[in-house]
Amino acid sequence: MKIFHISDTHISDDKHFNKNALEKALRELNSGPYDIVIHSGDVTESGRLEQYRKAEKLFKGIDIPFVVIPGNHDKRSGGFSLYQEYIGEANGVKEGGDSVIIYVDTGVPDANIGRVGMSKFEMIRDNLHKYQKKSIKIVNVHHHILPVPRAGRERNVLSNAGDLLELFLKMDVDLVLSGHRHYPNVHKIEDTVIVNAGTVSGRKTRHGEANSYNVIEIDESEIKVTTQRMKSSREVNSFPRKESKVFYDFGEREFRIVQVSNTFISSLTESRLPNTTKFKHTHYTNAVDSINNIEADLVVHCGGIVEEGISRNYELADEYLSRIEPPIVYTPAGRDINYLGYHLFQEYFGNLDQSYAEDDIFLQGVSSAQYDSPVGIVGDTERKELFKKMNEREETFKGLFLHHNVVPIPHSREKGLLEDSGDILRKVVDENIDLVLTGTSSHPFAAKVGNTLVSNVNALSSVYQRSRYGNSFNLVDVYNNAIVISEINSLWGNRRLLGIWKRNNSND
Ligand SMILES: [Fe+2]
Ligand SMILES: [Fe+2]
């Protein structure tokens, strides 16, 4: 199957639209052979009648199957009804041979954010079930699922990207196509290739990027994505399809990391009012018992140590956390550095950016917290220093830990996502960092992006948690040939597997 993938045409009569670029791309398309054209939205610049008429005319020459969805720009000026009149259905399913394409409108009228409402979410899920046997399953959405680098603030992602991501991974979607950010980017998460197109003919390109389109070739053994820039440079990414997930020989266990977050320690006794604390005391004490009995080499606390950064909480946290026997490294959440927390954190627990090095493992913490804000950011300067530091290390297994999320987490909205998550994710994948541990959004999730395993942990002992399995911590077991991550319930100590992944340097 050979796909011609374009996005963000931004057709109009004004300076926003580069007609020559679109015509050039359409000429390339006609010199094909291609099986299908997929457009990931923002057909027009502002959803106006003359723009839709122009789009209709420009697309008339396409004589192979064409799948197109609206973007946020197409829903401006009340343009959605015109979209349906001139372009077609905004949602649907295109079936052909051994492939199926599910295309979904993620736009919200007069807004830049994306959303997939409940009925559309069910439509996607039902169709993925219905077409489960198809060997090529593709989803086309305008807004990106994984954060895109060099995009500035990651604020207008799909608000329920985490739920969609979980669904796509569970249902073995092969390819997710999107646009919107006007910056080409390709990731592979588990067995799903995520392709973000640049803009094919919009003038608003980012970072001096040229207009571009993608050529995607899928056969039994690989998915090959060629990003073709108008100024002739091209970039090719190839990914093997459906890697084997069956292992027989894990080898020896090299080390065991306990990953915790959101202990939310706070005083229980000083108030005469009914108990208003968010700290679950019994969950905490039981979890500490489990941690002390599983031969962990290290505990990584991904932030949310105290409920609020005030003295009496820190005093108590110091006492409570000293009951954990293995060594601990910490990284702060916003709440840890609030009020006097910025000083208290350092007084009781040490540096904001801590690290751990032992034998062949190196873990570096990076503070993503901001004073008086739940929003996370690493920032350009810190990111550069961080990767410089990582590159100087000789260890063969390298990891990062921070509070905020670098991928969207199921059953939460984007509020835990780091503002520069796109940059961090791109960098950890490009640098082959083995492991990233994060600790917000209060839901466990683990998935491999490129060669980087990303593990998020639920709250250990805070009332704010979203998992039906209850508060928990993660156990990250690194074997010679595999990494096994499981979740352990704080209160009861029962264990649930989150996944098994092959080690990057595995010789198995
Ligand atoms: Fe756009
Ligand atoms: Fe857009």
From TrEMBL:
Keyword annotations of the record: Hydrolase, Iron, Metal-binding
Gene3D superfamilies, per database record: 3.60.21.10
Pfam family, one: Metallophos
Keyword Mitochondrion part of the UniProt annotation: no
Domain of life: Archaea
Domain Calcineurin-like phosphoesterase, first and last residues per copy: 1-184
GO molecular function list: hydrolase activity; metal ion binding
Protein name in UniProt: Calcineurin-like phosphoesterase domain-containing protein
